[in-house]
Amino acid sequence: MKKAIYWIFILSILGSLAACNQFPFSAPTPAPKATIEPSVTSAPTATPEPTATVEPAATETETATATPSYPPEGYGPTGFPEEVNPLTGLKVEDPNLLDRRPILIKVENLPRKDRPQYGLSKADIVYEYYTEQGSTRFSALYYGQDAEQVMPIRSARFIDMNFIRMYKSIFVFGSAYYLLYDRLFSSDFSKRLIIEYRDACPAVCRFDPGGKNFLYADTAALQNYIAQRGIDNSRQNLDGMFFKLESPEGGQPAEQVFTRFSGAVYNRWDYDPVSGKYLRFAETENDLSGDNPQYAQLTDELTKQPIAADNVVVIFARHSKIDPRADVEVLDVAMLGAGPAYIARDGQLYQVQWSRMGEDQVLTLVDENGNPFPFKPGQTWVEVMALNSLFQQDGNAATFRFVSDW
After folding, report:
1. Is 333 in contact with 129 (CB distance < 8 Å)?
2. What is the CA radius of gyration of the chain?
3. pTM, entire model
4. 40-75 pLDDT tens trace
5. How many other CB atoms are there within 10 angstroms of residue 348's CB atom?
């Protein structure tokens, strides 16, 4: 009975928002067709090297990868076996890895000269979101496996407070805007914050490839540092996500997914049927007009493997300004409640809803009836769009264009 009331509550919220015309997926506004040029939707001619495919074992070190032995009923959203990672739906090589908190690390996306980043392919979940002045950054979550170098680490944003609470995580970051810094260190999770300290290495260190002086974290070495600081690092309840190997019905073809945050930051995900993953291509030049996008395939400098995701999720959430100055963009993002979303998996795109009904609950997906919607077992990338953002389906390509709320 409580479960029924819970989903009725979710659906009532969704209905109210839709009535206020805040759900672009219910009546998506077509984006200008110039966002999808023939040279882009075909083979990636702007890519300097041929697209690298990914063998299923290349980026998965968890033992129970997507195999025919995967239980047909799937895993989750509750009752995960002790050895199954609730953030990927995969069994881990070492179940002891799950007897700890996840580690959230802030990673930069610009300037382009600092790409490729280190360690992103080893994260369970990566969030990309708008920061300011057309830029984006990543918040990468590590749990089921470790990464010896995650970098370049940069400063926090207000949106990160959502992720810290969702995953009860340790948070590693470089610095923060003074209002956010105060809020972080006055929060109930302040003891789980890790910034650069003189005695933090080898957990958090400086690395100087080519004079770049990167700040990086070693997630395995962080375990000793966390213990030394007396941080509660016990296993947390991370229930909420639902995983099934079989593709759901009702999807639309999506061999490519474009997410454009600005003329300076835009990316493309190409579906690779051999590995069953989406391969990421990042912009190499500004494209202010939207008529001449230039891409290159993104790799992980740590593993030398292509960045590949089993799920590419796009969510729409309310963005608001924190700083009233007209020429300053300091934003917060409302990620509590429910809202419109899409998920691309197995070459198909599905219209769904994101849901997070409590601050300590992980973000998950539900269908139009409020039932859990299945992620594909493996890594998930989440692209966070503003509520006013636009969606367009053009053949086998889906395009999402960021449009500000403020």
Report:
1. yes
2. 20
3. 0.85
4. 333 333 333 445 555 444 334 454 444 559 999 999
5. 17
